[in-house]
Amino acid sequence: xxxxxxxxxxxxxxxxxxxxxxxxxxxxxxxxxxxxxxxxxxxxxxxxxxxxxxxxxxxxxxxxxxxxxxxxxxxxxxxxxxxxxxxxxxxxxxxxxxxxxxxxxxxxxxxxxxxxxxxxxxxxxxxxxxxxxxxxxxxxxxxxxxxxxxxxxxxxxxxxxxxxxxxxxxxxxxxxxxxxxxxxxxxxxxxxxxxxxxxxxxxxxxxxxxxxxxxxxxxxxxxxxxxxxxxxxxxxxxxxxxxxxxxxxxxxxxxxxxxxxxxxxxxxxxxxxxxxxxxxxxxxxxxxxxxxxxxxxxxxxxxxxxxxxxxxxxxxxxxxxxxxxxxxxxxxxxxxxxxxxxxxxxxxxxxxxxxxxxxxxxxxxxxxxxxxxxxxxxxxxxxxxxxxxxxxxxxxxxxxxxxxxxxxxxxxxxxxxxxxxxxxxxxxxxxxxxxxxxxxxxxxxxxxxxxxxxxxxxxxxxxxxxxxxxxxxxxxxxxxxxxxxxxxxxxxxxxxxxxxxxxxxxxxxxxxxxxxxxxxxxxxx
Length: 525
Known about the structure:
Blueprint: H1 7-13, H2 22-37, H3 40-53, H4 59-79, H5 85-94, H6 104-112, H7 123-132, H8 134-137, H9 140-148, H10 154-167, H11 180-183, H12 191-198, H13 205-214, H14 221-232, H15 241-251, H16 256-269, H17 272-285, H18 290-302, H19 306-318, H20 324-337, H21 341-353, H22 358-370, H23 374-388, H24 393-405, H25 409-439, H26 445-479, H27 486-493, H28 500-524
């Protein structure tokens, strides 16, 4: 059972020893209402009121409110990736006016047991936090029960309980999507509590929208809604992503988690130059942030800033980040672009040792092809072909090239024919997406423009590759004496005007091969 803390009663009675002016009582009531509203700016404004009034003999009457509000501020700062150190320090400073029987240090420890926003933390820090709180996770239910029976204001106590409940959801005995504590929060509860339930284990966009409508100053809802909107951009949704990200970035510019979200947004819409600015901001605050390093490396690669991309990947490797397989992969990609094949080969081999994914195998096969290590290239590309079920056009292309280098014309022709068909299907699929994309005026304008331009460029490349692959297939199949599909392949190749001159020569060669094959057949009859 929760026991009663009598500071408020004393205030209401205007204790003779510590008179509270009527205007101050009105300010206290307003601050209490702001706490229930729960937005970050609301909590800060309430904290300013409590700080102003918590002086002299009145300090003991306001200390609990001051302590609680700084606990809430520290939790909110953790939730959106801000530094909670100042709020925690202010909460500790308020304990001098609290009775020791309350055990304020235990509440501070409970807040410390809630991690910072994971998107703003390096993976290594997340893992270290989990290890450090392994024992705490076993006592969470008991801790929640202790908080519920304590002297905190009910809405503050419930918020702290929810924070622990949501953080340690994987603890023993927890089943289902929502806990009993979550479901106990009614739709007419304080916006402070509605927000916490809506951001517990997954984002409830509708609930957050209701919170924002109720408390317009609840800007931090835009962070969680922005995460969802950015994730939906490639799926044709996320029309509000830019507005949400811009708002939260303006309001919480010091948050590495917010900067990372902004970087991810800019990278998704195709503005890698802007994404680099945000990733650099993350790394300035969190120098070992693995995902920001990877985003930075990929963006530098797409911007053809190969030397900088290699340097970024090298830094990831030197830091021994847990995604350094990706660093080896992207460094190999950039070394290959610079025609430094030995360096590229060493990096892709290092990546392979950490996990031979489809992308790693494909890049390995292409590098080995470039080095004329044909046995190894063929083996890796065949494995990649099996894993991709023929849907990765570049694999069929390079398999065809490997076999052409070995004068295995029939297999080379079949591989290039497969590649041609694959590129044709890719172009057709992208064309459908372009039509839908350009017709959807609800999408972010920059996203629609950059994605449309990128897709049209890819379609042009696909059609060119389709034609060249068909040209190669016709050449190699005819060299192997197989002519049944050659004319159809030549028709595909003829769609590319750049091949017109070479096609004249190839058609002449194929005709010569046909006649030679006919003469051989006549001799054998």
